Structures are given as C-alpha cells and as structure tokens.
Amino acid sequence: SFKQEKDPKFWNTWAQQTLKNALSLQTLNQNKAKNLIFFLGDGMGVPTVTAARILKGQLSGQSGEETQLEMDKFPFVSLAKTYNTNAQVADSAGTATAFLCGVKANEGTVGVSAAAVRSQCNTTKGNEVTSILKWAKDAGKSVGLVTTTRVNHATPSASYAHSVDRDWLSDSAMPAEAVQDGCKDIARQLFENIPDINVIMGGGRKYMFPKNQVDVEYPDTAKYSGTRKDGRNLVGEWIEKMENKNGHYVWNKKQLLSLNPNNVDYLLGLFEPEDMTYDLERNPETDPSLTEMVEVAIKILKKNPNGFYLLVEGGRIDHGHHEGKAKQALYEAVEMDRAISRAGLMTSIHDTLTIVTADHSHVFNFGGYTHRGNTIFGLAPAVSDVDQKPFTAILYGNGPGYKLVNGGRENVSENNYQAQAAVPLSMETHGGEDVAVFAKGPMAHLLHGVHEQNYIPHVMAYASCIGQNRQHCAGHNQGSRLRPALPSIAALFTLIRLLF
Q1: Choice among 1, 60, 78, 92 that is catalytic
Q2: Active site annotation includes 426
Q3: What pLDDT digit, counting tens, does each position of 11-31 carry?
Q4: β-bridge mates for residue 37, sequence order
Q5: Fold of the domain spanning 32-363+438-464
Q6: Which of 125, 267, 385, 429 has the fewest CB neighbours in a 10 Å radius?
Q7: Is 318 annotated as a binding residue?
Q8: Strand, coil or helix: what is 497?
Q9: Closest by alpha carbon to 204, among 127, 268, 257?
Q10: Please, where in the chain does CATH 3.40.720.10 lie?
C-alpha cells in the first residue's frame, strides 16, 4: 500500500502531526519520578535498532521501514559514548559500571572504579562503587533485575557486585589466590551484598548449587550441574531466609505464572542453568519470555508506595551478534521492544522515568541498496560487480561468518545462518560507535545531545530524588515539580542585597 506515499499530502500531514506533538513537549515533565525503569539492550547499536524496527514491521505483514518500535515513540533521544577507561571499544562489564554506578571503569570489571585492575583481587578493596539499584533500595524503593542472560552476568552484576573480574561467576571460576585473598564470586555477592533485592529473574542456576549437584531441569547433562566448590546451596539459603517474608523461588514458566503477585514480596526466578534460550528457540510451555518476566516483576514491585527501580536486560541480542547470527539477535531485540511496550502499559509517564539504551554496539550493519520491504535477512538486489556473486544485505565487519565461497552461498533462511564477515574470528566483536539513549517520563529531557555513558544514572537519581544530589527535592511531594534549588537561593541573596 505505497500508493498514499506518492501523494505529497501524506508526508506533509504526517510531518505536521509530528510537529504538533513536538511543540507540546515544550512543557517539560518536571515531576518527581516515583518509579525508574531501565531497559538495556546488550549490544543494541543503532543499526540493530533500525533492523529490529524493519523486522517488527515485517512480522506484522508490513514492509517494515515505516514501523515504529516502542522505543521510537520516546520523546527524548540522545547519544552515549561507550568507551571504557582503558578501551576504545568497550565490553559489557565496564559499560554496566558506567550506566549503573555512574562511574566509568576498566573493561572486564563490575562495580569498581578504574583504580581496580582486572583479575587482581587485591585491587578491589577501597575501589568499590555503588549502583542506582542500591541508591533506590536505600531510599525505600522496591528493586528488581530481570535478564535473559545469567543473573550474575556482566550487566546485572554491576547492580550489586564489586568484582575485578566479570568471569568470576562462581567460586570455581576464580583463581585459588583470589579466593584466599577474600574476593567473593559474583553469585555469592548477589545474595550477600544488598539484602532483600525484591525481584531477581533470569538464568544461571548452575552457579548457585554445590559442585556436581544435578540440575532440576536437565539431570542428565553434566555441564549443567552445580559448580560451587564451597558446597553452598545459595538458592536453598535464600528460600530459608525468605520463609516468613512472602518469598518465592521458581524455575519454570508454570510456577512463575501461577504466583499471585499480591502475595509475593520477594521473587527469585532462575529458569536455565546458564543463559536463557534465544527467543526463537524458547519452549513457550516451560520458559517465560522477557515480556512475561517484566510483567510479573512490575506487578510485584509497584505495590511499594515509595515506588520502584527495575533493570531489564535484553541480554542475548549481544550473543546473537557475537555468533554472527543476525536473526537470533534481531528477534531478541523485537522481544525486548515488546517488553518495553508492556511496561509502558503498566506505568504512567507522569511518575515513571523509563530509559532504553545499549551498553555498546556491534560490527553489524545492513546495506546493499535493498528495495523497500526487502526481507531484512534477504539478499541485496544485484550481485557484486566484482566477483558476480550474490550477497546478503546484513554483513558483519568480522566474526565467524567469514567464508571463501566457491560457487553457491549458504541458505539464508534458517535461524542460525551466519552473515558474511570481512575478517575471520571465532566470535564477532563489539562496535565502538555511540549508542542511542531513549527517554520518557519525569526529567527525560535531561538526556539530550551527546553524553558520557556514566551520566545516565545521575539523571535517573536526580529525577527520583535518590543518591547524591537531593537538595532540589526539599519539601516536594510525589507528583510535584522538581525545581533546581540554586536559582531560588541566588534570588534570595539578591533580595537581601536590595533590602540592605
């Protein structure tokens, strides 16, 4: 139905409507943010956002380019610079420390400043930095984290852990020396550092159980058995501790969806031994989707009259790209967009600041002068004028898709097809360019222009009157407007000078 697009009136009317909406934004939302929701698409660079938009549209029978993702509807968009203190192209640990703790850090480290050195246990002490999850908890809010990776993976772990190595997932993954020097593995820190995190959902069961204890879901698969050398059963300890606190542990979708959120104050959901499965391969009978997890999380968290903070990670967008499997990555991004939509329906922009961003990009792109509505996973319309062979629109700068093709090309339609890459690597790398930050709700306009990534949690804290600068909040009730305190003090001094 491109007929209407041939009429200039179509584009002019659309633009005028957009202009009208833009003008209404001049009245900035300066309410106090009761709730904070942070969506992190791991590896979701701008090309991934564009491609996911096209895919989402094509999945609903449109050509896709003109589709609006839920994040596209957010009124404020800025760019974040993603470099780590010691890396031009960042990793997920150093970036998570930036956008959760407000401090840039070295790659591979979580919840510690750049004074900490990766893998050197004795550089941890004194260099710990706290996250916005902790600031919100200390302010009396309910807090939660939901991810499609392991709950002790890089992104969520910067919320609660202080570790000089993102790979210290359980004590068996640590050098003996680090354990002797008193460093704790990340799984243990999840349960010990910030008591009473209200909602924890994702994968990662095997890091919580004693070595060789078989997994509840895959008893016959040795690699999914417990990994803990210290013999502790962290899940059992959590269940015991939460016995009289309306705490529930679940490990499958049926258990999760049978809970009545009104009777749940604490929820631990570990749905896989490692990362959760890709959405394209998910068993809808046994594994919840990201959207389903987010819905339950918000129902539990929003019972708190002081509001809540929730981190949601679409963590496997990144994994799809690393494997050169663009189809997996883009379906993960579309699922995260569904979760953003669901969260939007359950909250209000009047009292909830929602931010959507990525930790870093990937060397993923699509091009080749494809025609309008070309399947995002399809071929460019013409063959190469150099080697006369066809090529896909999606290409990677490096990664496992590097192949010297003799004659034919692989079938492009299957889920795990690896798009062609220029440089052979077993794992494709992150990209170094800025990522988009989408914001809506109270004080969302503070995310504008180009910023360092560590600025983001400072905005969230300012908007919700938690963390370090709260002087602008004095005497403000919920739903009231935030006004910077400084101009009024300046006005007072001027008045005093005039009077005397």
Answers
A1: 92
A2: no
A3: 999 999 999 999 988 889 999
A4: 310, 354
A5: Alkaline Phosphatase, subunit A (3.40.720)
A6: 385
A7: yes
A8: helix
A9: 268
A10: 32-363+438-464
